[in-house]
Amino acid sequence: MLVLSFDTATDVATSALVDRGHVLGERISVARTLLEDLDGLLREAGAGPGDVHALVVGTGPGSFTSTRIGLAVARGIGLALDVRAAGVSTLDALASAREGAFPVVDARRREVFVAGPRAVAPDDLELAPGTLCIGSGAVRYRATFERMGAIVPPDGDDVHLPHARLHAALARDFTSPDALQPIYVRAPDAEAVVA
Q1: Please, are residues 79 and 137 in contact by the beta-carbon 8 Å criterion?
Q2: Per residue in 46-79, pLDDT tens?
């Protein structure tokens, strides 16, 4: 079963082509090049769109816009190819990278997204000494977490990326791509103005 998996919720977009648990290819880029990345993965594997059996997409939390890009792509491809899709939390995928890892995604506004999911100020977290913090929020607030006694791998360590292959491994409930829901955690910054 050929599965296209991708996550665009953070500043880094990841994508993977997986066949029965075997990773055929991976890409790391940005959300705006996601379609090019997916096309490249298929071409490199000698496959075409018609060979795709399912989709797995990261549902956040993360950037509103980036998360919407991933879900819109999943819905568009799902409709065009008539395939089912599964959504996987970006935090869950990160947590699966290493046993005991505590995923932390940068939420901007001096906050991070953590399990719950919830948005909190890094200083408001209570972490046990030795907690392994991974993700974009762990990198951004390294000094805060290390002051608490947490361990944050070096900035360039790929454990900080929500690899799409991890999403594919966690996917369970495949449904219509239209049924996938984003995990936003908080309300958008933009407000409708009524004249």
Answers
A1: no
A2: 999 999 999 999 999 999 999 999 999 999 999 9
Mean pLDDT over 1-28 rounds to 97
Sign (positive or negative) of CA dihedral 11, 114, 107, 63: positive
Q: Where are the domains of the chain?
A: 2-91+161-179, 97-158
Cα Rg, the chain, nearest whole Å: 17
- 46: tokens are 């000698």
Cα(100)–Cα(120) distance, rounded to whole angstroms?
20
User: Does the domain spanning 2-91+161-179 belong to CATH 3.30.420.40?
Assistant: yes
What pLDDT was estimated at residue 186? 80
The confidence score (pLDDT) of residue 128 equals: 96
Per-residue confidence (pLDDT) for residue 187, from 0 to 100: 72
Structure token digits, residue 193: 């103005």
Query: DSSP labels for 14-49?
Result: EEEEEETTEEEEEEEE-GGGHHHHHHHHHHHTT--G
Per-residue b or e along 114-149, where b marks 16 or more CB atoms closer than 10 Å to that residue's CB: beebebeebeebebeeebbbbbbbbbbbbebbeebe
Cβ-contact 125, 148 below 8 angstroms: yes
User: Rounded to whole angstroms, what are the CA distances from 58 to 63, 192, 195?
Assistant: 12, 27, 36
Three-state SS at 3: strand
| Contact in structure between 143 and 136 (CB atoms under 8 Å) | no
